[in-house]
Design brief:
434 residues, alpha/beta, six-stranded parallel beta sheet, 14 strands, globular, binds uridine-5'-diphosphate-glucuronic acid
Length: 434
């Protein structure tokens, strides 16, 4: 099937490349011709594990092409809308890019081309898009197909979905989506067919549910720390209950990224607009925001000097994305309080530099950043940090204090190297031997 994909950010590029690798004829459109020429030459414009391999495979098999012109998508039988839906100042989602993309698609394709919304849009938006199309005198149909891809594991998630959700208005649209995902249906992957608004709601509730789970485990971790209980055993045992599930029970410095904070804010707005209570979500959002200063306080209270080594600035491991990164939010509070930060991230240094945060200097490796630091603070769970040479780190640092806010180091080894270590959900004097 000939399929257009509008927008080549995380969602669009992964979707286009992976559908091409599953046999569809894909044309990806981006308004930036700089991005288009890079992609044409096989250069990945986003950091995502293995995406470059699949991109080049698709290019070599002529299954994917790139353009900045809507005229080139004119013979598409379906078009995925994968443009950004940033937050407005009041937290609601801004749909300007989506409306503009849809308008260009209807003007350049025939009426049988199905327009599939993959961008995360508030419940009710697809119906609005449908009305917008009809008001402009066109007959194209709208469907939606929310994505559940995690940055850093997007290829794996695309190839191993827990479910594919499609919101449609009729059986023809459903048939087009079934044909696009035929390779998954053959594997018996869950395929949920629903109406437009429920399709949109499923995405918001999934992200919000996961963020509530994280906020809750974070608060319980703080309680464990106070009462000398072990958060690792707690998460493990609680997660063994199938009704709860073992994933997203890792405590840390708070959730971040371009999805959870934005989508939880938007869902709150939707509830408010519909005069519905969203107290649970509200509490979780507040708890996550409070967490940044809680983490900064924990560091400041237990550090003597003003020089800190920061390890990890991305919002999680496996990505160079620093949007709404808890690490960056915590660092801003530390800088406001007069701390000097020597920072290192395996791949986010360049993105971080663009923020121009005063008194935060980036280094090319862990050990240069740790030189003479009063404390070392791990804020992102990079694999590289799990293999730190603790003895070397101890000798380089001045204060001999470690804050492992992702609980990735071996605590006993760190103590053995001479460090005083602070974790999340384990008390200061926590001893694993008990
Ligand atoms: C999230 C969802 O997981 C995807 O299903 C969804 O498609 C995507 O948003 C989206 O809406 O596009 P992502 O933002 O890439 O994916 O990252 P996650 O892996 O979900 O992590 C989000 C945040 O939660 C990170 O800051 C991470 O460190 C934090 N987290 C996650 C924890 O603190 N503890 C955990 O146990 C898990």
């Amino acid at each position: 099937m000939k399929i257009g994909v509008i927008g080549t950010g995380y969602v669009g590029l992964v979707t286009g490349v992976m559908l091409a690798n599953n046999g569809q004829d894909i044309i990806c459109l981006d308004k930036s011709n700089q991005i288009v020429s890079k992609l044409k030459s096989g250069e990945c414009t986003i950091y995502e594990k293995d995406l470059d391999i699949y991109l080049n495979k698709a290019i070599n098999s002529s299954k994917i092409s790139f353009t900045d012109s809507y005229e080139d998508i004119s013979d598409s039988e379906a078009v995925f809308i994968c443009v950004g839906t940033p937050s407005n100042e009041d937290g609601s989602a801004n749909l300007d890019y989506a409306f503009s993309a849809i308008e260009s698609v209807i003007k350049n394709t025939n009426k049988d081309c199905l327009i599939i919304i993959k961008s995360t849009v508030p419940p009710g938006s697809s119906k609005e898009f449908q009305k917008f199309i009809h008001d402009k005198g066109y007959e194209h149909k709208i469907a939606n197909n929310p994505e559940f891809l995690r940055e850093g594991s997007a290829i794996y998630d695309f190839m191993n979905p827990d479910r594919i959700v499609v919101g449609v208005t009729d059986s023809e649209s459903e048939a087009i989506l079934r044909s696009i995902y035929d390779y998954e249906l053959k594997k018996n992957t869950n395929f949920v067919v629903t109406d437009l608004t429920s399709g949109e709601m499923i995405k918001y509730v999934s992200n919000s549910f996961l963020s509530i789970k994280i906020s809750f485990i974070n608060e319980m971790a703080d309680l464990c720390e106070k009462i000398d209980a072990n958060i690792h055993d707690l998460s493990k045992a609680v997660g063994m209950d199938k009704r709860i599930g073992s994933l997203f029970l890792n405590p840390g410095p708070g959730y971040g990224g371009s999805c959870f904070p934005k989508d939880t804010r938007a869902l709150q707005k939707i509830a408010e607009k519909n005069l519905c209570s969203s107290q649970v979500l509200e509490a979780s959002v507040k708890s996550n925001l409070d967490r940044y200063s809680l983490m900064a306080q924990k560091i400041m209270k237990n550090t003597k000097g003003k020089s800190l080594c920061i390890l990890g600035m991305s919002f999680k491991a496996g990505t160079d994305d620093i949007r709404e990164s808890p690490a960056v939010e915590i660092m801003k509070i530390l800088v406001e309080n007069g701390y000097r930060l020597n920072c290192y991230d395996p791949i986010s240094n360049e993105n971080f530099k663009l923020l121009n945060i005063q008194n935060a200097e980036t280094f090319d490796n862990i050990y240069d950043a740790a030189q003479d630091a009063d404390s070392i603070v791990i804020l992102t769970e990079w694999e590289e940090f799990k293999h730190i040479d603790l003895d070397k780190l101890y000798n380089l640092s001045k204060g001999k204090i470690l804050f492992d806010l992702r609980n990735i180091l071996n605590r006993e080894m760190a103590i053995k190297s001479g460090f005083k270590i602070f974790n999340i959900g384990l008390s200061e004097n926590f001893n694993n031997d008990r």
